[in-house]
Design brief:
Layout (H helix, E strand, L loop, with lengths): L1 H8 L5 H4 L2 H21 L1 H7 L4 H10 L17 H14 L1 H16 L5 H10 L5 E14 L2 E11 L7 E10 L2 E2 L1 E2 L2 E2 L1 E7 L4 E3 L13 E11 L3 E2 L18 H24 L16 H33 L7 H28 L9 H13 L8 H9 L12
Helix pairs in contact: 3-6, 6-7, 6-9, 7-9, 9-10, 9-11, 9-12, 10-11, 11-12, 11-13
Length: 407
Protein backbone atom coordinates (compact mmCIF):
# COMPACT_ATOMS: atom_id res chain seq x y z
CA UNK A 1 0.00 0.00 0.00
CA UNK A 2 2.79 2.41 0.86
CA UNK A 3 4.35 1.75 -2.52
CA UNK A 4 1.25 3.04 -4.29
CA UNK A 5 1.32 6.26 -2.30
CA UNK A 6 4.98 6.82 -3.05
CA UNK A 7 4.34 6.29 -6.73
CA UNK A 8 1.46 8.74 -6.59
CA UNK A 9 3.66 11.46 -5.14
CA UNK A 10 6.09 11.29 -8.02
CA UNK A 11 5.52 11.37 -11.76
CA UNK A 12 6.05 7.65 -12.22
CA UNK A 13 4.01 5.47 -14.56
CA UNK A 14 1.77 4.13 -11.83
CA UNK A 15 -1.15 2.25 -13.44
CA UNK A 16 -3.86 3.96 -11.41
CA UNK A 17 -2.39 7.36 -12.29
CA UNK A 18 -2.66 6.69 -16.00
CA UNK A 19 -6.25 5.46 -16.06
CA UNK A 20 -8.93 8.03 -16.98
CA UNK A 21 -11.35 8.74 -14.17
CA UNK A 22 -14.24 7.36 -16.24
CA UNK A 23 -12.37 4.06 -16.54
CA UNK A 24 -11.89 3.83 -12.77
CA UNK A 25 -15.59 4.42 -12.09
CA UNK A 26 -16.57 1.77 -14.63
CA UNK A 27 -14.01 -0.66 -13.22
CA UNK A 28 -15.41 -0.28 -9.73
CA UNK A 29 -19.00 -0.69 -10.90
CA UNK A 30 -18.08 -3.92 -12.70
CA UNK A 31 -16.06 -5.25 -9.77
CA UNK A 32 -18.88 -4.61 -7.30
CA UNK A 33 -21.38 -6.25 -9.67
CA UNK A 34 -19.14 -9.33 -9.68
CA UNK A 35 -18.86 -9.29 -5.89
CA UNK A 36 -22.57 -8.72 -5.21
CA UNK A 37 -23.75 -12.37 -5.47
CA UNK A 38 -21.18 -13.44 -2.88
CA UNK A 39 -22.21 -10.64 -0.53
CA UNK A 40 -25.86 -11.64 -0.85
CA UNK A 41 -24.98 -15.27 -0.18
CA UNK A 42 -23.10 -14.28 2.98
CA UNK A 43 -25.90 -12.12 4.40
CA UNK A 44 -26.69 -14.61 7.15
CA UNK A 45 -23.02 -14.86 8.14
CA UNK A 46 -22.71 -11.07 8.24
CA UNK A 47 -25.81 -10.68 10.37
CA UNK A 48 -24.93 -13.42 12.85
CA UNK A 49 -21.41 -12.02 13.31
CA UNK A 50 -22.83 -8.52 13.91
CA UNK A 51 -20.06 -7.12 11.74
CA UNK A 52 -18.86 -7.13 8.16
CA UNK A 53 -16.11 -9.78 7.92
CA UNK A 54 -12.65 -8.26 7.56
CA UNK A 55 -12.00 -10.05 4.28
CA UNK A 56 -14.90 -8.14 2.71
CA UNK A 57 -13.72 -4.68 3.80
CA UNK A 58 -10.19 -5.67 2.78
CA UNK A 59 -11.44 -6.58 -0.69
CA UNK A 60 -13.39 -3.34 -0.99
CA UNK A 61 -10.28 -1.48 0.05
CA UNK A 62 -8.16 -3.35 -2.49
CA UNK A 63 -10.65 -2.37 -5.18
CA UNK A 64 -10.05 1.27 -4.25
CA UNK A 65 -13.42 2.07 -2.68
CA UNK A 66 -11.89 3.81 0.33
CA UNK A 67 -9.78 6.10 -1.84
CA UNK A 68 -12.38 6.97 -4.45
CA UNK A 69 -12.56 10.62 -3.32
CA UNK A 70 -8.88 10.98 -2.43
CA UNK A 71 -6.78 13.10 -4.85
CA UNK A 72 -4.49 11.28 -7.22
CA UNK A 73 -1.61 13.22 -5.69
CA UNK A 74 -2.12 11.03 -2.61
CA UNK A 75 -2.79 7.70 -4.30
CA UNK A 76 -6.53 8.19 -4.71
CA UNK A 77 -8.84 7.66 -7.66
CA UNK A 78 -10.20 11.24 -7.51
CA UNK A 79 -13.74 10.32 -8.53
CA UNK A 80 -16.71 12.63 -8.07
CA UNK A 81 -19.37 12.08 -5.42
CA UNK A 82 -22.02 11.41 -8.13
CA UNK A 83 -19.77 8.63 -9.48
CA UNK A 84 -19.41 7.08 -6.03
CA UNK A 85 -23.11 6.98 -5.12
CA UNK A 86 -23.99 4.10 -7.53
CA UNK A 87 -21.24 2.05 -5.87
CA UNK A 88 -22.81 2.58 -2.43
CA UNK A 89 -26.23 1.79 -3.86
CA UNK A 90 -25.04 -1.46 -5.47
CA UNK A 91 -23.32 -2.64 -2.29
CA UNK A 92 -26.41 -1.78 -0.22
CA UNK A 93 -28.56 -3.79 -2.62
CA UNK A 94 -26.26 -6.80 -2.20
CA UNK A 95 -26.15 -6.51 1.59
CA UNK A 96 -27.40 -3.55 3.61
CA UNK A 97 -24.72 -3.74 6.29
CA UNK A 98 -21.91 -3.92 3.75
CA UNK A 99 -23.40 -0.92 1.96
CA UNK A 100 -23.71 0.98 5.24
CA UNK A 101 -20.08 0.41 6.25
CA UNK A 102 -18.97 1.28 2.71
CA UNK A 103 -20.95 4.52 2.97
CA UNK A 104 -19.27 5.36 6.28
CA UNK A 105 -15.84 4.66 4.81
CA UNK A 106 -16.63 6.81 1.79
CA UNK A 107 -17.93 9.70 3.89
CA UNK A 108 -14.76 9.54 5.98
CA UNK A 109 -12.82 10.61 2.91
CA UNK A 110 -14.74 13.88 3.06
CA UNK A 111 -14.07 14.65 6.71
CA UNK A 112 -10.40 13.73 6.39
CA UNK A 113 -9.94 16.83 4.24
CA UNK A 114 -10.55 18.86 7.44
CA UNK A 115 -7.59 17.43 9.35
CA UNK A 116 -4.18 19.07 9.26
CA UNK A 117 -2.11 18.40 6.17
CA UNK A 118 0.43 16.46 8.25
CA UNK A 119 -2.30 14.23 9.67
CA UNK A 120 -3.86 13.74 6.24
CA UNK A 121 -0.51 12.69 4.81
CA UNK A 122 0.01 10.31 7.72
CA UNK A 123 -3.38 8.67 7.20
CA UNK A 124 -2.96 8.09 3.48
CA UNK A 125 0.68 7.05 3.80
CA UNK A 126 -0.45 4.48 6.37
CA UNK A 127 -2.53 3.02 3.55
CA UNK A 128 -4.88 4.81 1.16
CA UNK A 129 -7.08 1.69 1.02
CA UNK A 130 -7.54 1.53 4.80
CA UNK A 131 -10.99 2.04 6.30
CA UNK A 132 -11.58 5.18 8.37
CA UNK A 133 -14.81 5.55 10.38
CA UNK A 134 -16.22 8.27 12.58
CA UNK A 135 -19.00 9.16 15.00
CA UNK A 136 -20.74 12.52 14.78
CA UNK A 137 -22.41 12.39 18.19
CA UNK A 138 -20.56 14.85 20.49
CA UNK A 139 -20.21 12.20 23.18
CA UNK A 140 -16.67 13.07 24.23
CA UNK A 141 -15.04 15.66 26.42
CA UNK A 142 -11.73 17.30 25.56
CA UNK A 143 -10.01 19.30 28.29
CA UNK A 144 -7.62 21.92 26.91
CA UNK A 145 -3.97 21.14 27.67
CA UNK A 146 -0.72 22.57 26.37
CA UNK A 147 -0.62 21.82 22.63
CA UNK A 148 -3.86 19.88 22.46
CA UNK A 149 -6.56 18.18 24.52
CA UNK A 150 -7.05 15.38 27.01
CA UNK A 151 -9.99 13.46 25.61
CA UNK A 152 -12.38 10.99 27.22
CA UNK A 153 -15.64 9.65 25.88
CA UNK A 154 -17.79 6.72 24.87
CA UNK A 155 -19.18 7.08 21.37
CA UNK A 156 -22.12 4.98 20.09
CA UNK A 157 -22.86 3.78 16.55
CA UNK A 158 -19.23 3.47 15.40
CA UNK A 159 -20.12 1.45 12.30
CA UNK A 160 -17.28 -0.67 10.95
CA UNK A 161 -15.01 0.15 13.90
CA UNK A 162 -13.64 -3.40 14.20
CA UNK A 163 -12.24 -3.24 10.67
CA UNK A 164 -11.08 0.38 10.77
CA UNK A 165 -7.49 1.57 10.84
CA UNK A 166 -8.47 5.11 11.87
CA UNK A 167 -11.39 6.24 14.06
CA UNK A 168 -12.77 9.74 14.67
CA UNK A 169 -15.02 10.98 17.46
CA UNK A 170 -16.79 14.28 18.19
CA UNK A 171 -16.05 15.98 21.53
CA UNK A 172 -17.02 19.12 23.44
CA UNK A 173 -14.11 21.40 24.29
CA UNK A 174 -13.66 22.07 28.02
CA UNK A 175 -11.34 24.47 29.82
CA UNK A 176 -10.86 24.42 33.58
CA UNK A 177 -13.62 21.87 33.80
CA UNK A 178 -16.30 23.88 31.98
CA UNK A 179 -17.47 23.78 28.34
CA UNK A 180 -16.01 26.51 26.14
CA UNK A 181 -18.95 28.51 24.80
CA UNK A 182 -19.47 30.62 21.66
CA UNK A 183 -22.73 32.46 20.95
CA UNK A 184 -24.40 30.46 23.68
CA UNK A 185 -23.33 27.05 22.35
CA UNK A 186 -20.45 24.76 23.35
CA UNK A 187 -17.52 24.56 20.96
CA UNK A 188 -16.72 21.12 19.60
CA UNK A 189 -14.03 19.36 17.59
CA UNK A 190 -13.34 15.88 16.26
CA UNK A 191 -10.36 13.75 17.21
CA UNK A 192 -8.94 11.21 14.75
CA UNK A 193 -6.54 8.55 15.97
CA UNK A 194 -5.20 5.20 14.86
CA UNK A 195 -7.62 2.40 15.76
CA UNK A 196 -5.26 0.80 18.28
CA UNK A 197 -5.61 3.86 20.52
CA UNK A 198 -9.34 3.22 20.92
CA UNK A 199 -11.21 0.56 22.86
CA UNK A 200 -14.18 -1.15 21.21
CA UNK A 201 -17.09 -2.23 23.40
CA UNK A 202 -19.20 -4.83 21.62
CA UNK A 203 -22.62 -3.36 22.32
CA UNK A 204 -24.27 -3.66 18.90
CA UNK A 205 -27.45 -5.73 19.35
CA UNK A 206 -29.92 -4.17 16.92
CA UNK A 207 -33.05 -5.01 14.96
CA UNK A 208 -31.58 -3.92 11.63
CA UNK A 209 -28.25 -3.23 9.95
CA UNK A 210 -27.22 -5.95 12.36
CA UNK A 211 -24.02 -6.71 10.49
CA UNK A 212 -22.75 -3.12 10.51
CA UNK A 213 -20.74 -3.59 13.70
CA UNK A 214 -21.92 -0.25 15.07
CA UNK A 215 -20.42 -0.77 18.52
CA UNK A 216 -19.29 1.83 21.06
CA UNK A 217 -15.72 3.14 20.90
CA UNK A 218 -13.99 4.55 23.96
CA UNK A 219 -11.12 6.88 24.85
CA UNK A 220 -10.02 7.11 28.48
CA UNK A 221 -8.14 10.31 29.35
CA UNK A 222 -6.03 10.24 26.17
CA UNK A 223 -3.72 13.19 25.45
CA UNK A 224 -3.96 14.22 21.79
CA UNK A 225 -2.16 16.88 19.82
CA UNK A 226 -4.12 19.74 18.32
CA UNK A 227 -3.05 18.44 14.88
CA UNK A 228 -4.98 15.23 15.65
CA UNK A 229 -8.23 17.19 15.96
CA UNK A 230 -10.32 19.08 13.42
CA UNK A 231 -13.54 21.01 12.84
CA UNK A 232 -15.68 19.07 10.37
CA UNK A 233 -18.46 21.62 10.06
CA UNK A 234 -16.50 24.88 9.80
CA UNK A 235 -12.82 24.03 9.40
CA UNK A 236 -10.82 24.69 6.22
CA UNK A 237 -9.72 21.96 3.84
CA UNK A 238 -6.08 20.91 3.98
CA UNK A 239 -6.21 20.27 0.21
CA UNK A 240 -7.28 22.33 -2.80
CA UNK A 241 -10.05 21.10 -5.05
CA UNK A 242 -13.82 20.53 -4.88
CA UNK A 243 -13.78 19.81 -1.13
CA UNK A 244 -12.24 23.17 -0.29
CA UNK A 245 -15.80 24.46 0.11
CA UNK A 246 -18.36 22.77 2.37
CA UNK A 247 -18.44 18.95 2.39
CA UNK A 248 -21.43 18.48 4.70
CA UNK A 249 -24.08 18.68 1.92
CA UNK A 250 -22.75 15.41 0.51
CA UNK A 251 -23.55 13.58 3.76
CA UNK A 252 -27.27 13.44 2.97
CA UNK A 253 -26.59 12.04 -0.48
CA UNK A 254 -24.43 9.24 0.89
CA UNK A 255 -27.12 8.18 3.36
CA UNK A 256 -29.80 8.36 0.67
CA UNK A 257 -27.76 6.04 -1.59
CA UNK A 258 -27.96 3.30 1.05
CA UNK A 259 -31.74 3.70 1.16
CA UNK A 260 -32.21 3.51 -2.62
CA UNK A 261 -29.96 0.46 -2.71
CA UNK A 262 -32.04 -1.37 -0.11
CA UNK A 263 -35.28 -0.42 -1.89
CA UNK A 264 -33.90 -1.51 -5.26
CA UNK A 265 -33.06 -4.92 -3.81
CA UNK A 266 -36.50 -5.24 -2.20
CA UNK A 267 -38.15 -4.63 -5.56
CA UNK A 268 -35.93 -7.31 -7.11
CA UNK A 269 -36.81 -9.72 -4.30
CA UNK A 270 -40.51 -9.14 -4.89
CA UNK A 271 -40.19 -9.55 -8.66
CA UNK A 272 -38.35 -12.85 -8.14
CA UNK A 273 -41.22 -14.27 -6.13
CA UNK A 274 -44.01 -12.88 -8.33
CA UNK A 275 -44.47 -16.24 -10.05
CA UNK A 276 -45.85 -17.74 -6.85
CA UNK A 277 -49.52 -18.29 -6.18
CA UNK A 278 -50.63 -17.32 -2.69
CA UNK A 279 -53.04 -19.38 -0.63
CA UNK A 280 -56.63 -19.27 -1.94
CA UNK A 281 -55.56 -17.09 -4.89
CA UNK A 282 -56.91 -17.76 -8.39
CA UNK A 283 -53.75 -16.63 -10.21
CA UNK A 284 -50.04 -16.11 -9.70
CA UNK A 285 -49.05 -12.80 -8.15
CA UNK A 286 -47.61 -11.40 -11.37
CA UNK A 287 -50.86 -12.02 -13.24
CA UNK A 288 -53.16 -10.17 -10.86
CA UNK A 289 -54.14 -6.56 -11.62
CA UNK A 290 -53.74 -5.46 -8.00
CA UNK A 291 -50.17 -6.77 -7.83
CA UNK A 292 -49.30 -5.14 -11.16
CA UNK A 293 -50.81 -1.86 -9.95
CA UNK A 294 -48.92 -1.87 -6.67
CA UNK A 295 -45.66 -2.96 -8.27
CA UNK A 296 -45.96 -0.09 -10.74
CA UNK A 297 -46.70 2.37 -7.96
CA UNK A 298 -43.69 1.25 -5.93
CA UNK A 299 -41.49 1.33 -9.02
CA UNK A 300 -42.52 4.93 -9.70
CA UNK A 301 -41.63 5.89 -6.12
CA UNK A 302 -38.21 4.26 -6.45
CA UNK A 303 -37.54 6.03 -9.74
CA UNK A 304 -38.45 9.34 -8.11
CA UNK A 305 -36.16 8.70 -5.13
CA UNK A 306 -33.22 7.79 -7.36
CA UNK A 307 -33.88 10.81 -9.59
CA UNK A 308 -33.84 13.21 -6.64
CA UNK A 309 -30.63 11.64 -5.37
CA UNK A 310 -28.93 12.02 -8.74
CA UNK A 311 -30.14 15.58 -9.38
CA UNK A 312 -29.07 16.79 -5.94
CA UNK A 313 -25.65 15.10 -6.09
CA UNK A 314 -24.95 16.44 -9.57
CA UNK A 315 -25.98 19.94 -8.50
CA UNK A 316 -23.81 19.86 -5.38
CA UNK A 317 -20.84 18.58 -7.34
CA UNK A 318 -21.09 21.45 -9.83
CA UNK A 319 -21.25 23.91 -6.94
CA UNK A 320 -18.28 22.23 -5.25
CA UNK A 321 -16.19 22.48 -8.41
CA UNK A 322 -17.00 26.19 -8.51
CA UNK A 323 -16.14 26.56 -4.82
CA UNK A 324 -19.71 27.63 -4.04
CA UNK A 325 -21.21 24.71 -2.10
CA UNK A 326 -22.83 26.15 1.02
CA UNK A 327 -22.69 24.55 4.48
CA UNK A 328 -25.99 26.13 5.49
CA UNK A 329 -28.63 26.25 2.73
CA UNK A 330 -27.20 23.35 0.70
CA UNK A 331 -26.67 21.23 3.81
CA UNK A 332 -30.28 21.82 4.87
CA UNK A 333 -31.53 20.91 1.40
CA UNK A 334 -29.35 17.78 1.44
CA UNK A 335 -30.84 16.61 4.73
CA UNK A 336 -34.33 17.41 3.42
CA UNK A 337 -33.61 15.19 0.41
CA UNK A 338 -32.18 12.43 2.60
CA UNK A 339 -35.25 12.50 4.85
CA UNK A 340 -37.64 12.26 1.88
CA UNK A 341 -35.67 9.54 0.12
CA UNK A 342 -35.34 7.46 3.29
CA UNK A 343 -39.05 7.82 4.02
CA UNK A 344 -39.98 6.94 0.46
CA UNK A 345 -37.68 3.93 0.40
CA UNK A 346 -39.06 2.76 3.75
CA UNK A 347 -42.53 2.83 2.22
CA UNK A 348 -41.28 0.92 -0.84
CA UNK A 349 -39.68 -1.84 1.22
CA UNK A 350 -42.71 -2.05 3.51
CA UNK A 351 -44.94 -2.33 0.43
CA UNK A 352 -42.79 -5.12 -0.99
CA UNK A 353 -42.92 -6.95 2.32
CA UNK A 354 -46.72 -6.71 2.46
CA UNK A 355 -47.16 -7.88 -1.12
CA UNK A 356 -44.83 -10.81 -0.49
CA UNK A 357 -47.31 -12.58 1.75
CA UNK A 358 -46.65 -14.97 4.60
CA UNK A 359 -43.47 -16.50 3.16
CA UNK A 360 -41.48 -13.31 3.81
CA UNK A 361 -41.82 -13.54 7.60
CA UNK A 362 -39.22 -16.31 7.83
CA UNK A 363 -35.61 -15.51 8.65
CA UNK A 364 -34.49 -17.01 5.35
CA UNK A 365 -36.36 -14.31 3.42
CA UNK A 366 -34.18 -11.36 2.36
CA UNK A 367 -37.28 -9.14 2.41
CA UNK A 368 -37.70 -9.38 6.18
CA UNK A 369 -34.07 -8.41 6.61
CA UNK A 370 -34.39 -5.47 4.22
CA UNK A 371 -37.48 -4.30 6.09
CA UNK A 372 -35.54 -4.22 9.35
CA UNK A 373 -32.50 -2.61 7.72
CA UNK A 374 -34.32 0.24 5.99
CA UNK A 375 -36.15 1.21 9.14
CA UNK A 376 -32.93 1.32 11.16
CA UNK A 377 -31.23 3.36 8.41
CA UNK A 378 -34.15 5.78 8.53
CA UNK A 379 -33.59 6.34 12.27
CA UNK A 380 -30.19 7.94 11.63
CA UNK A 381 -29.94 11.64 12.50
CA UNK A 382 -29.16 12.52 8.87
CA UNK A 383 -32.39 10.88 7.68
CA UNK A 384 -34.74 12.51 10.18
CA UNK A 385 -37.79 14.39 8.93
CA UNK A 386 -37.24 17.22 11.43
CA UNK A 387 -34.90 18.73 8.84
CA UNK A 388 -37.88 19.49 6.62
CA UNK A 389 -38.47 22.51 8.86
CA UNK A 390 -35.07 24.09 8.18
CA UNK A 391 -35.37 23.53 4.42
CA UNK A 392 -38.89 24.92 4.54
CA UNK A 393 -37.71 28.03 6.38
CA UNK A 394 -35.03 28.57 3.73
CA UNK A 395 -37.62 28.20 0.95
CA UNK A 396 -39.77 30.80 2.71
CA UNK A 397 -36.93 33.31 2.66
CA UNK A 398 -35.58 33.05 6.21
CA UNK A 399 -31.79 33.49 6.51
CA UNK A 400 -30.04 30.11 6.15
CA UNK A 401 -28.42 28.66 9.27
CA UNK A 402 -26.38 25.55 9.90
CA UNK A 403 -29.03 22.81 10.30
CA UNK A 404 -26.94 21.10 13.00
CA UNK A 405 -25.87 24.01 15.18
CA UNK A 406 -28.74 26.37 14.31
CA UNK A 407 -26.27 29.22 13.81
Amino acid sequence: MTTNVQLAHRDADAPFERQPIEHEAARLRAAIADLAPELAARAGEIESARRVPADITDRLGALGLFRTLVPRSHGGLELSVPEVLPLIEALSAADSSVGWVAMIGTGAQLFRTRVSRATFDQIVMDGPDALTVGVGTPAGRGEVIDGGYRVSGRWPFASGCQNARWIAGHFVIHKDGAPVMSDGRPLTRFVVLAAERWRVEETWQASGLTGSGSHHVVLDNVAVRDAETFDLFHGPSCLPGPFASAVTPFIGSLHAAVATGIATAAMADLAAMAGRRQLFAAADLRDTPIFQHEFGRLDAALRAARALLQVQADSYWRLALAGELDGKADFAESLQGSAWINATCSDIVSGCYTLGGSSVVFSASPLQRRLRDIHVARQHAFAQERFYARAGANALGFPPVDPISGQ
